[in-house]
Design brief:
The structure is a homodimer of 325-residue chains. The first copy, chain A, is built from 11 helices and 12 strands. Chain A has 325 residues and is an alpha/beta fold.
Chain lengths: 325, 325
Amino acid sequence: MKVMKIPDALTGAIRQAESVLIVTHVSPDGDALGSSLALARALVAMGKRVSLLNKDPVPRIYRFLPGWQDVSAQLPDAAEGTEPDALILLDCGELERTGFGTLPGRVKLVVDHHLTERSYGDIRWVRPEMSSTGEMVYSLIRALGAEIDTETALCLYTAIFTDTGGFRYSSSTPSSFRAAADLVELGVKPWSVTENVYESISPARMKLMGMAINGMRFHGDVAVIVVTRDMYSETGTTDEDTENFANLARSVQGVEVAVFIRQTGPESFKVSMRSKGRVNVAAIAETIRGGGHHNAAGGKMDGTLAEVEERIVTALTNARCDSQS
Amino acid sequence: MKVMKIPDALTGAIRQAESVLIVTHVSPDGDALGSSLALARALVAMGKRVSLLNKDPVPRIYRFLPGWQDVSAQLPDAAEGTEPDALILLDCGELERTGFGTLPGRVKLVVDHHLTERSYGDIRWVRPEMSSTGEMVYSLIRALGAEIDTETALCLYTAIFTDTGGFRYSSSTPSSFRAAADLVELGVKPWSVTENVYESISPARMKLMGMAINGMRFHGDVAVIVVTRDMYSETGTTDEDTENFANLARSVQGVEVAVFIRQTGPESFKVSMRSKGRVNVAAIAETIRGGGHHNAAGGKMDGTLAEVEERIVTALTNARCDSQS
């Protein structure tokens, strides 16, 4: 594996710290949790005291990651007023994304692969070209010379695996594949990670998926998939069970934009859009109290379902015409 | 990448051959086609005359592979009676799997990662521990010193990608990840392969999938998913559109065995079984005019749908009791 250049100041600050607080972003995903847990294990193996903090609970599908129970929602030692030697923000580059107003730490470090304009922290290692924070943490742990046991490898693999969509997105770089090779060599079982992350669908969620697919409709190359509150109550599901529904609609041949509309109130809806590239859905999202990226964005709309659907489809169709003219 | 030991006799025979016939198995999959097309390109780049032969047409989803149109269903030059210097059987180790009764070739070579008891061929390179024939062909092309352009890399990547279930199965070995890293470096776009292989579902197939999911039922930890002839005609689909339906049922939390029953006649059905490991479905398959592996097997059953479902579920439930006693 090509060795990644890691700032000496970063490894130096981590080496010096005896106590470390690791914090990641709200609604933590596989990369946030996997890289946090891996770094925590490695630092503990180096003899440091480590605390893990997250505003939100660990989602059920990530509760196979070794050590997930150690992630606390409360600042440790807050009552005693002790400050950790180092704070490490992982997979996010600004305080706001952690959901905390302030965080203790004599030195504040940032390790992230997201592009941000903020400059929070004393030492920032931000590499948007990396597949995942997990891949960065893998390099960091190696640079620190800490042990990588099978459990640490599993956390790192899961981080890389989930952030590359299971090695499917364009973020699946040569170095992400090489890291995966190393981690499998260290004992990770790829099928077991797949099973935990992608093959543990609850029967209720599967039922909801079937209903949603059955109701899928097409307006030219715009596919619309809908989940109403009636569907939640009929299947015994919640909002959490609709993950990836927008991707389901996008995976249909000939679909350029997928729209996932889910009901949040009698006449209010959340709208998520996925584009295959030709339509900038972020621009549409801005008109519906939302935002996002060129290919993935969302917002909120009010009205009846029929009205909401008609308005968003029209907006997307017009956006196409604009970009073609 | 660790260099794989390739028999000198194999590389020697290929180097000597001026004309080569490449044949793979019936119902060719991504590995069969990807490795065949990659090897053909490499051999053409070495100045050889190459023909590609397959009993079955190239499935639609693989028609993004460069050169797929060159795969012929007819023996080339048969009328002239000329025999190629070398026949290479790829991704299968016996004549029977090709669907042809006899195949020409002054020397007959086999490159395969499936375990077979047959000993067809003059030189056999069979490595069941390899992820895919694609990975073997990648090593072979490197050993031959032939050029690997982006198109060849795309064929090899697709071969490895599809046979590891998109780097999800336990066959996702360190060396398969390292090969993927190299191939992405050579210009392969992982997302584009994903899109072609997994994200080009026809609207009709998606509709069938929704109907099948809606009808999914559970008997203890056995999940049953059914497709009837009525469902085909209602959605305008065929047997080809049911790929991976058994996996859909297996992906439900708590399911140990997934059964996919599809109707082939008024009272006749094909039955596919997928086990997560605790039940040997091959043993059940043998009782229903079929066969397979421990975790994936199938066969044929006659009767009404209700009868067939009851019999197979009972057999699977008893199999569990046997293995526990």
